[in-house]
Each structure stands twice: as structure tokens, then as C-alpha cells.
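Changelog note: in this version the structure field was regenerated for every chain. One regenerated record is shown below for reference.
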Amino acid sequence: MKNNKLFFTIFVVVIIFLSFILPSFSKKGLIAKIGNKENITIDSFLLNNKGISKDDLLKLDDNYYSIINDESHIVSLSSNKIINSFDIVKDSSKFRDLVFKELRVKYPLFIVEGIIGSDYDTFKVEPDNIYISFKGDNYIYDVTLICKDYKELVSYNCVDDISDDLNILGLDPNKKTVALSFDDGPGIYTESVIDELNKFNMKATFFELGSMMQRYPDIVRKVKDSGFEIGSHGYSHKSFVKLKLDGTIEELNKTNEIYKNITGEDIKLVRPPYGAINSTIKEGINTVFVRWNVDSLDWKVKDERYVENIMSVLKDGDIILAHDIHKSTLDNLNTLLTRLYNEGFQVVSISELASLKGVNLENNNLYFHF
């Protein structure tokens, strides 16, 4: 009987110990140990990594620090080690899609498709951006992503209080830049022309005839919706000088009305047919007139020679004249765009070229180049 009571007493004591004393011990011991691991400070991390000092680090958030002179690694306090920068990416598929999209702002499609599947050469993380580069055969292709575009795809808390880059076109002001323009459309080849331009991430201005806009309104919409600039080439391709002032005003108003019915917008640029204009027309109509200073003569040669007509004289700030109504122009457009890219030209619309060169396009003025 006494043994039973003693056994019972011991059993109760053990239960009390397990119920109260052991959990308390655990909280002070085991959990405290885990807590120390979870709350590693940057100072304690540096004590165990003698080759790194605070001056070598850029704080990203409370957990991550970028190593300033290392373009591929960052410090992770939660794991108490140096990790690959890309390990902060939570959704690699969507992140690659974003990188692809941003690279296409700067480089032709065939370049981006060739590098996007390869490993990053540089993956540099900063509080408000991520700089990424790919190494090509003889060139480094790079892009800078800003926080607002990727913050849902990464595990660090990036800084999202900076304004967007005003140069949304990704243009280099120190690089040779020219404007490409097409007259007399839209026509049956226009959609293929913009498809070729899109492959190279190049822009252009299309000076369209009102009569052709009426015939191909869907193509007008596609040109505009694809991000290209549209100007007026009059309604019937008659010389403004021969039409005189009243006749020219009538042609331009008619063309603008057609364009506005299709797009909801007004036309801002005008190219006189044949380039023919006089002071009466220029001063009497409140619009911006644009000619060209590099003529491809594609309407005349109708073969690959038009490419050399352009490239043999082309220089920074020039405006190129071509036509999107000739099959021969389309057939050799890839050759032209390849030459432009390989020879270091950025190709943009007329308004983009003017903006890049610091020129404010003013009504009643005539522009040949910038």
C-alpha cells in the first residue's frame, strides 16, 4: 500500500514537472537559442566573416545587405550566410518575363531571344533597383529594373519611392540616332513593315494619305496602337504649292477628320507631298511641317540599292525618307534595319528624335533634320 502511495506521489511530481517546469526551461533554453539564430545582427555576422566590413555593405532591408564590390552575392541574416543575389527571386518565371520585356526596350528581338535563356553575368541588388547583365560574344547586354515593377516577385523589401526613368524609350543621348519615315500609306505592306521594325525595337513616323486612311482604317489603328507616330501627307498627294493655301487647308482638314474618326486624336505633323512648300503655306497653316534630308529613292530603284542610298550618307540627326507601299521596300527592310543596328544607329520617330536632340517642334516651322 505504501509503495502504491509512493509511486502515485512520484507520478504526480513528474507530471507537474513536465507540465510547468520543462516548458519554462524550454522557453529559456531551446527557443532562446532559436531566437538568437533568427535575430542575428549585422555586427555578429561580420564577427564571423572577417573579410567583410560595414563599409563593404549596402543595406537593402532588415534581413538583406548587398555586397558593394560583389555583383552576384548578398548577405542574408536569416540564413546567416552569403547567398547568390538571384536567390531573393520568389517567382523566377515571372521575373524572367519582366527581364525580357525590359531588354526589348533596348535591344532587337533576335538579341534578346539569344540571351534570355542564359545565366545572368551580373545580378546587382540595390535598395530601389536591380541591375542585370548578360555577356555576349563581344558585348555586354544590360538592363536596370525598378522596384515598382518587381517588388511582388522578390523576397526583399525594395524601396518604391523613386520616380520612373523619364527616358522611357531607353535611348542613349550619346549614341547616333536617326528618324525613319514612310510616306504614301497605309497600304497592304504597312503591317509587315511595322512587324519588321518591332523585331529590331525600332520606331518610325508614317505620313499617311487621307484617301488611304479611308481605305485601310484597321491598319491605321494598328500602326498607332503599335506605338508608331502618324503624320499627315495630305488627302490626295497633290502638291500644296499647286493647291495653294485654301486648297491645302481643305486637304489637311479632311485628312485630320478621317484620322480623328479612326483614332480619336488630331494629327500633329505634316509632310508636304513631293516636299513642295512655300512661305505662304508654311506661315498660313498652324502646324509642324517635316521634310527629310536622306532620300532612299526606293520609289525609283525598287530593289536593295535603296539601302545603300541611305547608309552611304547617313549621319546622326538625319531624317530618312522611304515608302511603305512598295513590296521591294519591305523585301529589303530587314537588310536596312540590320545595317542600322550593326552600325550603331538608334532608330526612332521624328518627334522622338527632336526630343532627344532638345528641339521643341513649333508650328509654322519646317524641319529637315535635327
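Spot check on this record: The longest strand covers residues 129-135. The mean pLDDT is 89.
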